[in-house]
Amino acid sequence: MPKQYIIAGIGTEIGKTVCSAIVTKALQADYWKPVQAGNLNDGDAYWVQKWVPGTHVFASTYELQNPLSPHTAAELDGIRIELNAFHVPETEQNLVIELAGGIMVPLNDQQTNLDLIQHLGLPVILVSKNYLGSINHTLLTYEILKSRNIPMAGIIFNGQTNASGEAFIVKHTGLPVLLRVNEEKEINSSIIAHYAESFQR
Question: Are 125 and 5 in contact (CB under 8 A)?
């Protein structure tokens, strides 16, 4: 059976796209971002394809014009995001799915990314980035996923190392550390391939 994972983060701008590219490369997977808000020509799918040449990218279910929370961007476009519009793409390859923003980001006036995760029914790889407050954000994200009985395959730590914080998170959650991604001056296909090798190991 192909491996299929949802890449979810503890917030926005914490490196989900970089981590998605790494996992896509490591698993030789297809890539799908269900909701793209803004940057339609050079958004996350563009970068994954640039960093992992040859990757098959499935079209987003919703492509929204403005780089805002999905529910706000959809409202400005005169549409409503509906949960039943999302279907996991059919593929014989492994699949990486990247969410837009954190897990409690609203999709409409009632539902969030958390509901989308549950709707898709796939395990989550959680991405955490070290900053003041990130331990709290990581544990809150873990606890709410756990409260919905959503399986978690592991955690990726991104950015500057915080050994004591990471140790506390791992001890509290029991999640395996799948990868540690350092703060790089530049992200390119060689950097992605380097981390993909580490992920495979």
Answer: yes
Of 67, 45, 47, 70, the closest CA to residue 58 belongs to 45
Torsions phi, psi of 101, nearest 5?
Answer: 80, -165
Determine the straight-line distance between the first and last CA of the chain, rounded to whole angstroms.
20
Q: Is the pTM of this model over 0.70?
A: yes
Which token pair is 163? 């050994």
Q: Are 106 and 83 in contact (CB under 8 A)?
A: no
What does 96-121 look like in DSSP terms, one character per residue?
A: EEEEEEETT-BSSSS-BHHHHHHHHT
Name every residue whose Cβ is closer than 8 Å to that of residue 144 and which is 6 or more positions away in sequence: 103, 104, 114
Predicted confidence at residue 118, as pLDDT, reads: 97
101, 12 in Cβ contact below 8 A?
yes
Query: Is 33 known to be catalytic?
Result: yes
Return the pLDDT at 110.
96
CA angle, residues 163, 166, 172, in degrees to nearest 5: 140
148 three-state secondary structure = coil
Q: What is the pLDDT of residues 156-175, one digit of tens each?
A: 999 999 999 999 999 999 99
**Which H or E run contains 45?**
helix 44-51
Cα–Cα distance measured from residue 22 to residue 164, given in angstroms and rounded to the nearest whole number = 25
pLDDT tens column, 48-92: 999 999 999 999 999 999 999 999 999 999 999 999 999 999 999
Question: Of the listed 3, 16, 25, 33, which one is catalytic?
Answer: 33
